[in-house]
Design brief:
- This protein is of the alpha/beta class.
- The model has no long low-confidence stretch (mean pLDDT about 90).
- The chain has 8 helices and 10 strands.
- The chain is about 35% helix and about 15% strand.
- The longest helix is centred in the C-terminal third of the chain and has 21 residues, at about 220-240.
- The chain starts with a strand and ends in a 25-residue tail after the last helix.
């Protein structure tokens, strides 16, 4: 794994991907995203104006495609049909843009992914030339199926969307990373910078978040913290932590040659 995040043939210096929703206004959105250092930003096509409503302010006015890689997503879709239709609209609005984030939800309460509908949508989108980054469960079998379909990144949840519960099942994330060759990006459930660091320490290629930043008391400061958490976790992964040793304490300094007192 080199120093940059590689997705669909393009390299990125930042391994933090961020969403653009839930901020109090466009000014806060812009400032927080700049503080995060993110280069890839997600846009909920069903909730954000990127030109489909010409009489309303466009998100692209503050977050131009010349500066960021846009990742249109299907937030709010509950069927494969709706998700495919939404991303076709996004491609039309963005002049043929093909990199997208697919998410098909199971219900409005848990927002847990419906993997059956997700797989169906992924097959259609890949066949139509989309480069699909896909939100899914932490099931390693499903993750491998989505890679085999042709998805360019697998994005398993850490915990439920917007829950802030952090990584509940690190073992499944590791199983996914052992089985797939495309980037694995933790998506959903991150609550604070330590959660992001843990994801990166496990070896994940990146972390995507929205609520953890936007719902913080100080979103701009939290965005900066998340940037540092991702960077620290990545460095720790590359460095290789010391092994854990139960009841096997060893001094951090050598003991040979130390001066000891003697009694006569």
């Amino acid at each position: 794994m080199n120093g940059k995040l590689n997705i669909a043939g393009k390299s990125y210096s930042s391994r933090l991907l961020v969403g653009t929703g839930k901020y109090k206004d466009f000014a806060e959105t812009k400032t927080a995203i700049e503080a995060s250092g993110a280069e890839i930003i997600t846009i909920a096509i069903r909730r954000s104006n990127i030109g489909q409503n010409p009489n309303e302010p466009s998100l692209l006015e503050i977050l131009p495609p010349s500066k960021y890689t846009l990742l249109p997503n299907t937030a709010g879709c509950y069927t494969a049909e709706d998700a495919v239709r939404t991303l076709r609209l996004a491609r039309e609005l963005l002049d043929g843009h093909s990199l997208v984030k697919l998410e098909v939800l199971g219900d409005p309460q848990s927002l847990y992914p419906n993997v059956i509908e997700t797989i169906a949508a992924a097959k259609t989108l890949v066949a139509e030339g989309f480069q699909v980054m896909v939100y899914t469960s932490d099931d390693p079998i499903v993750a491998k199926q989505l890679e085999d379909i042709g998805c360019v990144a697998i994005m398993p949840l850490a915990s439920l969307i917007g829950s802030g519960m952090g990584i509940l099942n690190p073992w499944n994330l590791q199983l996914i990373m052992e089985r797939v060759q495309v980037p694995v990006i933790v998506d959903a459930g991150v609550g604070t910078a330590s959660d992001a660091a843990i994801a990166m320490e496990l070896g994940c290629h990146g972390v995507l978040m929205n609520t953890a930043i936007a719902a913080a008391q100080n979103p701009v400061l939290m965005a900066s913290a998340m940037k540092k958490g991702v960077e620290a976790g990545r460095e720790a992964f590359l460095a290789g932590r010391m092994p854990k040793k139960l009841y096997s304490a060893s001094p951090s300094s050598p003991t040979a040659g130390i001066i000891t007192s003697t009694r006569s």
